[in-house]
């Protein structure tokens, strides 16, 4: 078993939607999970009820079922919500639940049974994370008792492992409606939704999405506008500031962008500061000039004079 623990994907939004869904699942499990009332929340086969497509994903069969889903939901929820914020994240969850629930209940119109749990939506999030953050790494715990190993794996590799395991499980069950098939339905629902959101520009993956990274590309996806080229800021006019605002303003401008000030202007500023006996400021300017490659004799003399007066 591969248990995800955390991911290094950057988070630009707090995990409020993820936390809210976890609290909702916990609350429902405590209040209705152990009673007959939970039947009203299930996705019932042989019916076609869109309300059940949503209610069934927030109830669970037992504490182990709930705990396992919450661990996976926390890790992959943070990856996705961290890029789009809680409002779009909740909309994404609803879209995955509706699409996968619709497909599932339609396929099972002539059958008996029911389903519940958030795992289908979680596999939808895995598909979305696979598209949006394939090269981010997930810290996972491998449990093959008595062997326990801890290591990092990329989202794209981990997603493929999870999908491959579900395909294998579905094959062993003859692709009959089962837990692996439900997981694959969730993954199939999340994949196109994640692609559409990316192509519409509803999520900014900063050029780290699957389409941008495919083949080693680093350019943004076509739907994202490239960043505007920075326009160099002109250097401060020290001489003009000395004439109009005085040495204090000129020194402040030099201190902010000293590397952009021409040496001749900086020398005139240092000379003015010496005339005004502002020795500390004069030493800062003259010292910077003296530390430049091949300073002139005038600079060396000015710096030496300032040092003797401090």
Task: Give a verbal description of the structure.
Helices cover 58% and strands 8% of the residues. The chain is mainly alpha-helical. The chain has 2 domains: 2-216, Up-down Bundle (Rhomboid-like fold), CATH 1.20.1540; 238-309. Strands 1-4-5 form a 3-stranded antiparallel sheet. A two-stranded antiparallel sheet has the order 2-3. Strand 4 and strand 5 (147-154) form a beta hairpin. The longest helix has 45 residues, at 63-107. It is elongated and about 95 Å long. The chain starts with a strand and ends with a helix. 35% of the residues are buried.
SSE succession: EHEHHEHEEHHHHHHHH
The chain-level mean pLDDT equals 88
Spatial strand order of the main sheet: 1-4-5
Strands, total number: 5
Distance between the termini: 71 Å
CATH architecture tag of the largest domain = Up-down Bundle
Give the class-level CATH name of the largest domain: Mainly Alpha
Rg (C-alpha, Å):
31 Å
Major β-sheet annotation: 3 strands, antiparallel
Helix share, percent: 55-70%
Please identify the structural class as seen in this structure. Answer: mainly alpha
Give me the CATH fold name of the largest domain. Answer: Rhomboid-like fold
The name of the CATH superfamily of the largest domain reads: Rhomboid-like
Q: What is the subunit organization of this protein?
A: single chain
**Total separate domains:** 2
Low-confidence stretches: 216-226
Counted by DSSP, the helix tally is 12
- In terms of DSSP E residues, the strand content is 5-15%
Q: Globular, elongated, flat, extended or rod-shaped: what is the shape?
A: elongated
């Amino acid at each position: 078993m591969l248990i995800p623990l955390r991911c290094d994907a950057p988070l630009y939004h707090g995990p409020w939607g993820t936390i809210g869904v976890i609290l909702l699942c916990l609350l429902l499990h405590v209040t209705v999970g152990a009673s007959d009332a939970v039947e009203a929340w299930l996705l019932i086969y042989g019916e076609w009820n869109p309300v059940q497509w949503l209610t069934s994903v927030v109830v669970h069969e037992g504490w182990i079922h709930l705990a396992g889903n919450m661990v996976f939901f926390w890790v992959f929820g943070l990856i996705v919500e961290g890029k789009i914020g809680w409002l779009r994240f909740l909309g994404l969850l609803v879209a995955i639940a509706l699409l996968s629930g619709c497909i599932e209940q339609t396929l099972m119109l002539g059958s008996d049974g029911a389903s519940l749990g958030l795992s289908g939506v979680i596999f939808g999030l895995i598909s979305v994370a696979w598209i949006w953050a394939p090269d981010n790494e997930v810290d996972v715990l491998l449990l093959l008792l008595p062997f326990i190993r801890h290591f990092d794996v990329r989202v794209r590799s981990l997603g493929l492992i999870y999908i491959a395991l579900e395909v294998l499980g579905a094959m062993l069950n003859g692709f009959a409606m089962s837990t692996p098939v439900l997981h694959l339905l969730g993954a199939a629902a999340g994949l196109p939704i994640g692609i559409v959101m990316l192509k519409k520009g509803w999520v900014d993956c900063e050029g780290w999405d699957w389409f941008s990274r495919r083949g080693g590309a680093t350019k943004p996806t076509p739907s994202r506008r490239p960043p505007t080229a920075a326009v160099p800021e002109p250097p401060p006019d020290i001489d003009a500031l000395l004439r109009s605002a005085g040495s204090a303003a000129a020194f402040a401008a030099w201190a902010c962008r000293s590397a952009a000030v021409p040496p001749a202007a900086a020398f005139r500023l240092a000379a003015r500061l010496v005339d005004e006996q502002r020795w500390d400021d004069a030493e800062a300017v003259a010292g910077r000039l003296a530390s430049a490659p091949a300073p002139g004799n005038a600079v060396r003399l000015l710096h030496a004079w300032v040092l003797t007066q401090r």
